[in-house]
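Notes from hallway chat w/ T.B., transcribed later so I don't forget. T.B. wanted the structure written out for a chain they're using in a teaching module, and asked if we could keep both sequence and structure tokens in one place. Agreed to drop them here.
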Amino acid sequence: KKKKKMESCECCPTTVSAVQSDYTPKGKVEEVAPNLQGYVVGSGDKCIICVYDIFGPSNQAKQVCDIVSQSGYLVIMPDFFRGEAWQMSKPIPENREEFGKYLASHTFEAHVGSDLNSTLSTIQTKHSNISSFGIIGFCWGGAIAMKIAETGKFKAAASPHPSMLTKEGVAAMKCPMLYLPAKDDRKMMEGILESSPVGSDCKYYDNMHHGFCGARGDWKVPEQAEAATDAINKMIQFFQKYV
């Protein structure tokens, strides 16, 4: 119970609200596995799976997918929440009990792991040319990326402002991971890089709040747009090296 409480507190360590983006996504929503929709963009012989933050398939997350796809990747963002993401207009409550219950219903063990396996099977059926996989995880998705990296099915993982990382979890990963934490994430990052697989790397964005590269990013603010662009480019370079 103690661990569960600690983990729920480590997700979304900020009071910054989500931001509605007026970006027009370039991809399309289609079935990515039986009974599972997802956002799909790009093409290539390498696939990047994107795991969004608690606000679901936001336009910011779709924009990251679009940009990454332009470097020659098929990018797929499954809707693991199945249309029931945490509402963008709903603040994370100070009493984390409700939020903790929400997170507990969407763990890797609850259904995300099996959803992922179904997605990978569908990809390999639809796109037989795919030779390797990478994964991006924002915030909540960073914890999911850590679990997914334990499966041995991915060549690299990347996480802007990750959440709920543990030294034991990252030590079990079978691929390098790129961490892109914000100022709110420093405490969680203690000992993480030292525990990570060979090839893992980290860049801190100490002038940015948690979520700047996801649904909490307001990219009409030049500083936030610059930081998000830098983080996306770092992820692309990481994938070009390892995937």
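Follow-up for T.B.: Confidence is low (pLDDT under 50) at residues 1-9. Might be a good example for the class.
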